[in-house]
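Lab notebook: predicted structure, single chain.

Context: the supervisor wants predicted structures on file for every construct in the current expression panel, including those that have not yet been purified. This is the next one on the list. No modifications to the sequence; it matches the entry in the shared construct table.
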Amino acid sequence: MSQMPDRQEQIRLVHAQFIRQVVETCQNPERRRELESLLQGAEQQGWVALVGAVRRISRGERGPMVFAGLDEEDQVIAVAILLGLQDPRTLPDPAKAQDPSLAAPGLAHMIHAAAHGNAQALILIGNMADQMLKAGGDLGRLSGVIRPLIDGERNPGRLCRGMDARGEQLVHDILAELGRLEGGGREPEKAPEPPDQGDASGQG
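Prediction complete. Output recorded below exactly as produced.
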């Protein structure tokens, strides 16, 4: 069985593009202006503490003060940047953020956390939904059911409306994982089957 990515890996995947861009521009003095533009954009989105850490890293700082004032998500991103500067082979692959085999279990865990008041999970899953929407296809349609899932919707018939078979499978995988998280292995409710028109035996 495939190993479900943990929360830290999900954070790395969601922010893979940002992590890689920081590493690439930090290592190239000629791309300093590009790095600054990237950081200004992140700062405008509220990542003030993380941007401060990245600026310290870009100046060559490597001590514990790099992580001062960072929350868990920021720390994961900062560590990924530091590791990437040391060994580019450790950098997360942005393509895997759209890998359905990762999306289902990872989303289920974040949906569960967000539904129980975890503000960081809510922000993270919002970012992931934006990336899924940009990716289009099955994941783009899946991004539209994240809010209903957080709000408690568990009916596959309503959630899968307009999806093809692959999209429906993703929703069922998420519902199955949510069932395990919420009810100790409870299976998601089935969509009602249409009556069999060929069996009209009635009473009998």
